[in-house]
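We emphasize that the prediction below concerns an isolated chain of 184 residues; any contacts that depend on oligomerization or on bound cofactors are therefore not represented. The input was used exactly as deposited, without trimming of termini.
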Amino acid sequence: MSLYSAGVEYGIHCLLFLVGNGGDSREASVRDLAELQGVPLDYLAKIFTKLAKAKLVVATEGVRGGFKLARFADEITLLDIVNAIDGQKLIFDCREIRGRCALFEGSAPAWALDGVCAVHGAMMTAQKRMEDALAQTTILDLGRKVGRKAPPEFGGQVDEWLVDRREKKGTGSEQNITLTDISD
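Result of the prediction step, given as a token string:
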């Protein structure tokens, strides 16, 4: 079982698509992002509600409205996205079993319970390292990494695809989902 939900993966991928060439912000509707990536629209709409509440994305107005990054891409970390979607999660829940040893016959000695449990301490260190790594990686960093892997024309193809979708919306041929249409 994974620590973070599929929503975290969907949210990060969506924000990557909102990072345009050169790190500027693209605009896209939730419907377009769902279709672009083949993910469930209703679930993605709930994710965008959380991202908007965390001020990571902002809704844009109008028939062709959608969402764009609320801050510069180099100011949005993976930890921001994770916390917005799934909340802060602990990787370990210490049950304090160190005092339950049968040899203690129900009365654990002070030395057994003194200080932080060594297992709990190791897990807290791992949690801190994981959160530090997520906090040090911005959506721009990840976007650049994806950009180096993708063929040079991919960014332009995404722009063209999104523009084509936005132009179709202007004709009234498709309904757009905005922040007012989605709720928790």
